[in-house]
Write a structure and sequence with these properties.
109 residues; alpha+beta; 6-stranded antiparallel beta sheet; 6 strands; 15% helix
Length: 109
Amino acid sequence: MALRLMPMTYADYLAGQQRQWGERFTPPPCADRFARYYGCDTRIRVRNTDGRERTGRVRATGGWSPCFMLMHRSNAISSCDLLGAHDHVVAVQDRTGRYVPVRGEEVSA
């Protein structure tokens, strides 16, 4: 049986990075948009300005200037999309596996 680590909260992640990198650390851009989905198993649907939609879980890169990334599958180690100002959360997966639209973050295609 594989060992599954408990994901940390976004506040724990920030505190650890600040401790490790000190003054050089800058929080990821668009933190207000993606932080609530970081470290949980909630899958989201993201749309960028050209209308392309992708689904996955939100994680963060390391280093003193990290960014959020969208992991498509649990085994997709090097296959992810970086999330930025052009990406917007349009839906969140519920317990039944259906994606429920999110209000207020939609972007027109």
